[in-house]
Design goal:
The chain is an alpha/beta fold and 464 residues long. It is 45% helix and 17% strand. It has 16 helices and 13 strands. Strands 3-4-5-6-2-1-7 form a seven-stranded mixed β-sheet. The protein has a six-stranded mixed β-sheet with strand order 9-10-8-11-12-13, with helices on both faces. The longest helix has 23 residues, at 163-185. The radius of gyration is 29 Å and the shape is flat. Residues 1-5, 250-262 and 388-394 have low confidence and may be disordered.
Length: 464
């Protein structure tokens, strides 16, 4: 392994978030052949408690030399191989906050453990055969999940629902390779290959790969979320719309134009998809230097957003200022939000809708009265679905690394088909077929390089 992951010895790390004056429990995790010895050195149990695997002991953590009391805690014992890493693991469940867990970690390091690298506990679980790479990545996705649906998809990966079809595809490729190599080695003893059957089998494999690749965009949305920017002239109700949508007072709302001077962010979940909503400063020409900075940030936010909500004031109608903003954002996926509809009559709403640009969606809202929010969310989901993001199996979503490997496997298999059609020798068939097998093996970790492991596990937190 590379220097990043020196996977020998006993490792220790804080396995919970460390926040001042928050968190009732902090956990220090230790894994390796010296884990039990370190626990017995630091942890003192009153009475006759049994030091057996999968038991929780109550006691005190003391400095091994001075016997100074460090914390009153619980100790969880998990002996190999029945642990997360398949090694001896102990966990000190201390009081939360900062000082207790940091002092306990320091004592563990002084007693022979070393500080774990990011993701090293999960790396050891992979190297010891407890997890495959898709399950390891599922753990990272679960920790970082920003919506219930993202968590469910991560759990599906953790349970092996992605690994199972990948392994089956690889097994099918190996069967085809075995048939071809048998003809190479024993050509005179076996009947010739049926090229049409081989091509048909490869087409079935590539079709399944195509199905899995169709989940990539949805996976990206679940992991990173959708960035939505609310833009428009000053005082059209952008901040009121954000507050009504998020059911909070994140943005300051007044009748004075230009109140919002910077981008205000709120995190929402729409249809199971995390949504980062950005309330931007009103876009207009101004001599105020601070407001100029806010306007420029608004333009950048609109250009970087996945979706733009161009908001106008129904009581004022479509203005030259609205037209100027529309010209700046029309190249982005766009929903036109006609706000303050409570201030106009029904016939005025219809006239206004007919005069404004041909946006994909036109939603009528009254942020002040909390009207139109459901219609807005529905319109957002329709735009997402129009990109086939939701078309695939919602219980499965691949990530970029997995998609790249699947794409490589698909390219290799198509090259095998071309080789067969061109009637090249059997040895040429095996070259690209082996490439497909290797690419599929990289997804689950059956064939993987140190650089891939470094890339995956370095993104984990220290205690995982």
């Amino acid at each position: 392994m590379s220097e990043l992951f020196a996977t020998t010895g006993t490792i220790a790390a804080i396995a919970t978030a460390v926040v001042p004056q928050q968190g009732s429990v902090g956990i220090v995790r230790v894994s390796g052949d010296q884990a039990m010895a370190i626990a017995q050195t630091l942890f003192h149990t009153p009475g006759r408690q049994l030091w057996e695997t999968h038991r929780i002991l109550y006691g005190y953590i003391r400095h091994p030399q001075t016997q100074q009391l460090v914390d009153e805690a619980l100790l969880l014992i998990m002996k190999a191989p029945r642990s997360y890493t398949c090694e001896d693991v102990v966990e000190f469940h201390c009081h939360g906050g900062i000082m207790a867990v940091q002092q306990v970690l320091q004592l563990c390091l002084e007693s022979g453990a070393r500080l774990a690298q990011p993701g090293e506990f999960t790396l050891r679980a992979f190297l010891n055969g407890r997890l495959d790479l898709t399950q390891a990545e599922g753990i990272a996705d679960l920790v970082g999940a920003r919506s219930p649906q993202a968590a469910q998809t991560a759990l599906a990966g953790l349970q092996g629902k992605l690994a199972q079809p990948i392994r089956q595809l690889r097994a099918n490729c190996l069967d085809i390779l075995a048939e071809i190599e048998a003809r190479i080695d024993f050509e005179e003893d076996l009947p010739p290959l049926d090229n049409e059957v081989i091509i048909s089998e490869i087409e079935k494999i590539t079709a399944e790969i195509t199905r899995l690749l169709a989940t990539k965009d949805k996976g990206e949305l679940l992991r990173s979320g959708l960035k939505v920017a609310i833009v428009g002239r000053p005082n059209v109700g952008k901040s009121s719309l954000l507050n009504a949508w998020s059911q909070s007072d994140r943005a300051i709302v007044t009748e004075l134009p230009g109140t919002t001077r910077d981008v205000v962010e709120s995190q929402l979940v729409v249809g199971g998809i995390p949504v980062q909503v950005l309330d931007t400063a009103g876009i207009r020409e101004t001599t105020d230097q601070v407001e100029k900075i806010g306007v420029e940030r608004s333009r950048r936010a609109a250009n970087a957003a996945d979706l733009v909500l161009l908001t106008i004031d129904a009581s004022v109608g479509w203005t030259e200022g609205d037209e100027e903003i529309y010209q700046q954002v029309q190249h982005r996926p766009l929903i036109l939000v006609i706000n303050k509809i409570d201030l106009v009559e029904e016939n005025q709403r219809e006239t206004l809708q007919s005069k404004i640009p041909n946006a994909k969606s036109k939603i009528l809202t009254s942020a002040a009265k909390n009207q139109g929010i459901y219609a807005l969310e529905t319109a957002i989901l329709e735009i997402v679905q129009s990109g086939n993001v939701q078309a695939a199996d919602m219980d499965l979503a691949i990530n970029r690394r997995q998609a790249a490997a699947l794409t490589q496997a698909q390219i290799s298999l198509k090259q095998v088909q071309a080789t067969i059609v061109d009637q090249l020798p059997l040895d040429f068939w095996t070259i690209d077929l082996r490439g497909a097998i290797q690419a599929l093996g990289e997804i689950t970790g059956e064939e993987v390089t140190e650089s891939v492991l470094d890339r995956i596990f370095s993104k984990f937190c220290i205690g995982k």
